[in-house]
Amino acid sequence: MSETRQDFSVVLVGCGNMGAAIAAGMRARIGKVEIVAVDPNVERARELLQDEEITAVSEFGALNGRQFNICILATKPQHVGQAMAAAQFYLSEDAVVVSIAAGTPISLLQETAPNLRRFVRVMPNLPALASSAMSVGFASDGTLSDEDRAVVEAIFTAIGCFSWLVSEDEIDLATGVTGSGPGYVFAFVEHLQHAAEQMGFPPELSEQFARQTVIGAARLLEQDRRSAHDLKVAVTSPGGTTAAGLQVLESPGALPSLLIHTTTAAAKRAAELARIQQ
Q1: pLDDT digits over 97-107, tens only?
Q2: Of 60, 165, 63, 22, whose CA–CA distance to 106 is shortest?
Q3: CA-closest candidate to residue 16, choices 48, 57, 38, 54
Q4: Which of 19, 146, 163, 180 gives 74 a disulfide partner, CB atoms 3.0 to 4.6 angstroms apart?
Q5: What is the pLDDT of residues 192-204, one digit of tens each?
Q6: What are the φ/ψ torsions at residue 88 (nearest 5 degrees)?
């Protein structure tokens, strides 16, 4: 990272769980980087950060006119416009502005801060809290240099995996899979636990069964180069127990179509939120 920008300075606007996770990732995996967090609930921000090297202040006035070349907008979507309007006076003219607010189009940021031009939308997901996020990003053609893109990639690979998308509309589509996806996995674990309870296992043991089964499968996916399909085949003996279960799970109208409907509904809602923000 130091080879990309020697004057790497970040103002983090909004420091809830996600903002704090991004800050922690940068500190742990990028190296020496100046980070200042601005959040009205400064005590909560400091508690989440747990890093004395990161300055946290409650308002922009406390920055005393300092200039930053990276701005990460990690506020709630309804506060993004107000936050951008206030933050722009503390950014260099070539600053890269990264918004992680769901449903907030780049056009809103451009309208709020017309003197800036390097805007990026990124959608991380909750596993950022465990440095295992799947983040996707978009920036309009010609607005970012290769160096700028390297900076964005470094920030978000510090909390997991990152991929660029080719259009802003794909942010909403990806949200239905990556952004909301952890919720689907948690729901699966919850219902797998309930199924174990229905079989007669006590709740605590049922929870352990469900949690560790999914954790173990996820780690195998991470460590084994085989595809999910190939791993499914590997665990399924012809005529065996897994085959019997999968026959139900993958039957017409079950998991395959259910996930299509699920991700489509989430993506549709993301697009609706984007239109509301415009």
Answers
A1: 999 998 889 99
A2: 165
A3: 48
A4: 19
A5: 999 999 999 999 9
A6: -60, -25
